[in-house]
Design a protein that fits this description.
Blueprint: E1 8-14, E2 22-27, E3 32-35, H1 52-71, E4 74-77, H2 99-106, E5 110-113, H3 122-133, E6 141-144, E7 149-152, E8 155-159, E9 163-164, E10 174-175, E11 178-182, E12 185-190, H4 199-207, E13 212-216, H5 229-245, E14 248-252, H6 261-274, E15 278-280, H7 282-285, H8 297-303, H9 308-314, H10 318-321
Parallel strand pairs: 3-4, 4-5, 5-6, 12-13, 13-14, 14-15
Antiparallel strand pairs: 1-2, 2-3, 7-8, 8-11, 9-10, 11-12
Helix pairs in contact: 1-2, 5-6
C-alpha cells in the first residue's frame, strides 16, 4: 500500500474509525512509537449527544490505544486537546478516560510532548501543566520535544517547531509535527494543521520528502461559523500540492465530520492520481470500511433509537454523566 519496507504504520483511532482522534502506531527496527494517544467524542452535533454506537466505538478504540501504548517505547503529545492526549481524570461521557487509564498508557514510557510554556494558548497551558504533574510522574522520561530530534539506533524522530492549529494566528494555538525516519524512509505526522492552511506549514511538510504523510484535514463542517471559505479553499489547494508530492497520504480527522467529505476530497484524489499517488482515510489505509459516526449522528438517532436506559443516562447532568459509564 505504501513504499515503506522498514517502517510500519498502523492507524489506531481516527474519525474514519468512529471517533475523534489521530492516534497512530509506528514501528521501526529500532523503536516503537505511539503518536497522540487520545480519543474523544463530539459533545453535540445536530443538537444530539453521542449515539450509543459512538460509545461502542470509543470504548473499542480506547482499549486498542491502551494495548498499543503498553507495546510502545515512546508516546508523543502534539498538543493538549483531549483527542490527542489522555487526561488523568474520570470522563466516560466524552473522552472515555480515568487516572488508571492514563497511568496504563504513559507508565514507564518516554513521553515527548509539546512545550506547554511556549507557543500555547491559556487552556492548553493549563492542561499541559496538569498533564506533566499527573501522567508525567508515571513516565520513565518526560521531555519537551519542540524543534528537537531524538535518535534511537538508525531511527530519528524529528519534531517541528510549533505550527498553527489551522490558519495563521489561530485562537486554537499551536501543534508540533513529527518526521520519523529510518535510513531512506520517512513518515510525516501533521495533526490538526487543517490542510494545512498555513503556507509555512505546507513547506515544512513538503521539504521532508516523506513516502507517507498523515494529515489532519480542514474542518469544513464549521465553514461560516469558526472558519471561512477562503481558509478552506487554501487548505484544499495545499492538500492538492501534498498529494502531488507525496506518494501516499492519509487525510482524516476534522474533514470527515462533514457529510459531504467525499465531494470535498475528490479534487485532492484527482491530484494524487495525476501523479500516480494515493489518498486514503485511515480506515481505507487499513482496508476497512469508513465508520463515520459523528457526521451521521442525526441519522443514527432516527434509524437506531437508543434504549430508554441510555436516554435516561444522557439526560443527567454533565458532571454526573462523566462519572457513570453509559449503558451500552
Amino acid at each position: 500500500m505504501s513504499k515503506l519496507r522498514e517502517i510500519k504504520v498502523l492507524p489506531i483511532a481516527f474519525e474514519s474509525l468512529g471517533v475523534r482522534s489521530m492516534c497512530t502506531y509506528i514501528e521501526t527496527p529500532d523503536v516503537r512509537i505511539l503518536l497522540d494517544a487520545g480519543v474523544s467524542l463530539g459533545p453535540l452535533r445536530f443538537g444530539f449527544p453521542p449515539h450509543p454506537r459512538e460509545y461502542e466505538a470509543i470504548k473499542d478504540r480506547r482499549e486498542t490505544i491502551i494495548r498499543f501504548a503498553e507495546k510502545a517505547d515512546i508516546i508523543t503529545v502534539s498538543h493538549y486537546h483531549f483527542d490527542h492526549h489522555t487526561p488523568s481524570y474520570t470522563d466516560w461521557a466524552y473522552n472515555w478516560c480515568s487516572a488508571e487509564i492514563a497511568e496504563r498508557i504513559y507508565q514507564e514510557k518516554i513521553v515527548l510532548v509539546k512545550n506547554y510554556r511556549d507557543h500555547i494558548n491559556f487552556s492548553q497551558r493549563r492542561r499541559g501543566w496538569i498533564f506533566e504533574k499527573t501522567s508525567g510522574k508515571h513516565a520513565k522520561r518526560f521531555e519537551v520535544a519542540d524543534g528537537k530530534t531524538f535518535t534511537f539506533g538508525s531511527t530519528t524522530i524529528s519534531f517541528s517547531r510549533p505550527v498553527f492549529h489551522g490558519p495563521e494566528g489561530s485562537e486554537l494555538g499551536w501543534v508540533i509535527m513529527v518526521a520519523i525516519k529510518y535510513e531512506n524512509e520517512c513518515v510525516f505526522f501533521a495533526p490538526d494543521v487543517q490542510g494545512p492552511i498555513s503556507q509555512k506549514t505546507l513547506k515544512m511538510i513538503i521539504d521532508e520528502k516523506p513516502q507517507l504523510a498523515i494529515i489532519g484535514g480542514p474542518p469544513t463542517y464549521l465553514v461560516g461559523f469558526r472558519i471561512d471559505h477562503k481558509a478552506v479553499d487554501l487548505a484544499i489547494k495545499n492538500l492538492k500540492v501534498i498529494a502531488r508530492h507525496i506518494p501516499v497520504v492519509i487525510v482524516d480527522h476534522h474533514i470527515l465530520r462533514d457529510e459531504n467529505w467525499k465531494k470535498i476530497v475528490q479534487p485532492i484524489v484527482d491530484a494524487a492520481v495525476s501523479a500516480g499517488h494515493k489518498i486514503f482515510t485511515a480506515a481505507e489505509f487499513l482496508g476497512r470500511q469508513n465508520l463515520l459516526l459523528e457526521s451521521q449522528r442525526k441519522r443514527l438517532y432516527e434509524n437506531e433509537p437508543p434504549s430508554s436506559e441510555f436516554v435516561k443516562w444522557s439526560r443527567i447532568s454533565s458532571i454526573k454523566r462523566k462519572l457513570i459509564p453509559p449503558p451500552i
